[in-house]
Every structure is written in structure tokens, then in C-alpha cells.
Amino acid sequence: MSWLLALPAALFLFVFFVLPLLDNGMRSLVGGDGQLTLTRYSALLTDSFYLRVTAETILLSAGVTAICIVIGYPVAYVLVRKSGRWAGLIIFLLIAPLLTSIIMRTFGWQVLFARRGLVNNLLLDQLGLIEAPLRLTNSPGIAIAALVHVLVPYMVLSIATVLQSVDRRLEESAKILGAGRLRAFREITLPLSLDGIGTGAILVFMIANGSFVTLVLLGGGLQTLPLLIYQQFNTTRDFGMASAMSTLLLVVALSCLFLQLRLVRRRGA
Amino acid sequence: MRARKRDWIDIGLVAFTVLFFTFMLAPIIVVVVVSFTSAGYVAFPIPGWSLKWFANIFAYQPFVGALKVSIGVAIAATLLSCLIGVPACLYLARSRRAWASAVMTFLLSPLSMPMIVIGFASLFFLSWLGIGITFTALLITHTVVCLPYVIRTVAGVYAGLPSAYEEAAAILGADPARVFWHVTLPLIRPGIMAGALFSFLTSFDNLPISYFFASASTGTLPVVMLSYLENQFDPTIAALSSLQLLMAVVALLIVDRVYGIDKMTVAA
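Predict the joint structure of the above. Result:
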């Protein structure tokens, strides 16, 4: 088999994936007068508004990643160690939401927390805890919950993959030698599954960094780079600034990809 | 004492898992239920049952047009992805050269880039090439993100196959074209099927790229749904989403049949 077979795919991606991104980077460096300029990047790195947006993007992604680890680990543990004949069902339930549209899920959150949604109806009619419907939508909490909802399956599957390869006899040995169950977990299982947490964390962080549909529809006052690109394309039409922000987002994504490759390679070695 | 403590941990873990799946399924189930509401507004629980919102999908012309665009793009992008992706796998999955694994990483890399950046950058680049907001532009940009799915599944299947079958066919005198058609292709067909389905669903659900290429004749379903949702909040969107979910679940069951869900590792 000849290397020529791989040429069409590689060429296609070079022309329609690499070149547009390079072109975008170039456009972020050319000012309105056609001269090279770094003003947009200096604005991104010094202007307090842009600094706040960048910080918020990274904090939001990091926060969502942390929540996904805390929620996802126990589920991955149950899937690998406890599920038995339920494993197929659990995997199906994890993957099925990945195939629902992002619009459907955000719509679902709106239905749950709308003025006449499930939560208000429960509090108002069933429990009588409140007297008028609460205004629950448009809060950062719900936007974060919606992001976790989208991303946590990736975390569970990443952790479960590594957990599956951890030799259970190591944990058994620790217990036989007198370690309690929690201690065996803390000193044996958890350290051995760190790779899975790492892979999952990079994956979740990477996707969280680029997601904006959730924030467009659920708002919550969170202001992130992808949301700002969307707004600048839509309303302000400051394409140069949007290019610079895209390039910044791309650099973050490339760093994540690099980390991911190193992690995979280390596991392979 | 120790046995009792263990039980409590297990009960806690199971309870947590049940709670987790309640969280995962609640937003999806409420949408499915709301799509059958008889009310003229979005409320949960619903006052009665009706199918009128499903009928409403087809009464709203932009949805019908967008559905056609979405299906067209998804099929075309999937075909193109298979056409250029499968040959690449045939070489890369078996090659031991270092650069082959680098090319593989490159071919999978669009999965790791923020889609909004791909969409935004492509709009300006393709406009410069003279194919701005057209069906062709949608096809090209969707293929960029669909190709990795085809490559990952096909390469996964092909790498796991022993080369003995193809060698046997070649020794018995079959030329490379015949070997491919009669031996290789039937062996990798499950991978192609699964990759094509994932590719179709990825394209069909794509919003961050399609958004930049939307016009009256090139608006895909998610884009039209988003703009509908920004102005109206009624159960039509729920009905449409439920139909989409049905399609995805059927696709998933097919993938499981021909390929096995457990082989679909998410991490690259």
C-alpha cells in the first residue's frame, strides 16, 4: 500500500483546515490601514475588559472540569467495579445524551427552570414553599450545570477506560495487608487512575473552552471568549478583534492537544 | 463492623449513580414530554396530550427547508469523508513509520479545535476563494469535522485485522483492486458503517460552524432552531428535538449492532 492513499485526506485538511486558521491568524495582525499591528493582542493582554473575559473563560472551563472530575469519578468507579450486568445500560445512558442536540439540552434546562417549569411548579403547588414563581433562568448556576451535563460523559468514559486496566489484585493485596477500603482506594486505585482523570480533564477543558451555544441560550451573565467572538461577529462586527480572540483560543486548544499527546504517549510507553 | 461499613459505601455509590442519571436524563425527558403537550405554551407537567406540535414542525416552512439542507449536507459530507478517509486509513493504520502516526494525529486534530474558530476562520478564507456562503462551503467545513470520526473508526477496525487475508488473496493472484474490493472492503465495512453514522450525526447536529454559513437557502436545522428559539419559546422546538433524538437512538442501536459501543473510546 502506498503513502499516496493518505494524500487526499491530508491535502484536504491542509487546504481547508490549516490554511483558514493561518489566514485567520494573519488577519488578526493586519490593521484597518493594511499595516502589520499588534494592537489587538496588546488589548487582549492588557485591557481590563478582555483580561476579565479571558480569565472568566479559563476559570469557567477549569471549574466545569473540576466539577466533572468530582461527579464523574464515582460514576466511572461504579461502572467498572460494581455495575455487573448493568454495565451495558450505564454505557448506553452515558452515550445517548452525547447524541442529543445541544439545542435540545438547553431547551430542557429552560423547561426545568422556566416560570412554569418543573422546579417552580414543585416549589409552588406541590410543596407550597414559595408564593410566586421564582425567576430561575439566566443564572450562572444553571449555565454551569448545563455545561457539566454536556461534558461529564466524556470524563466518565475517560476515567472508566483507565480504571478498567487497573489490576484489582493490587487493591486486594493492600486490603489483605491490612489497609482499610478507603485507604486502599486512596493509596492504590486513585493514583493508578490519575491518567484517566488527566485525559478526561484535558478533553473536558478543551471542549468547555470552545462552547458557546449553552451560554448564548442560558445566559447567566457569563462572558467568555467564544461568546464574545459570536457577539462580535453578530453585532459589533469587529472582525479583527474576533480573529485575535480566535487565535488566542486556538493557542489554548493547541496546548491542550500537546498535553493530551504527551499523556497518551506516556501511557503507551 | 467492617462489613457494615462496606455496605454503606456501596449504598452511597449506587445512590449517587442513580442521582447522576436523574441529572443526566431529566432535561432530556422533560423535552420529550413537552413535545406531546396540548397546551399552547411550554409548561411542565403538561396539562394534556396532543400531537399538534409535531404537525406544527411541518407547517413552519423554514424548518422543512432547513431539514432538507441538513440532510443534504450530512450525506454529502459523510460520503466525501469516507471517500478520502478510508484510503488514508488503509495506509496509515498499518504503517510503522513515525511520520505516519504524525499524519494520523493531524487527521484527527480537527476534533480538538474549537468549532467556532474553525467556522469563523473558514468563512473568511472560503469567501476569499469565492465560495462564501454556499452549499459547497457547508460541505467543505462539515467534512473537516466529520473526517476524523470516519478515520478513527475505520483505522481502529483495520488496525485490528490480521493482514493474512489480504496476503492470501494476493498470493492467489488477485490484483490490488480485487483484493480491496473482495477482501479488505467487506472486512472493514462495520468500521465504515459506524464512522459514517457518527459523521452523519456530527454534521446533522453541528451549530458552531453552520452558523457562519447561514442564509435563506443554506440555513441548517440547528441554526434555524437557534434563531427560532431566540424569538419564540413554544413546544415546536421540543417536538423537533424529540424526532432528532429518536433518529440518534436508532443510529446508536445500529452502531452497537455492527460495531459494538464499547469500542467507541472517546479519548483520542
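Chain B is about 75% helix and 0% strand.
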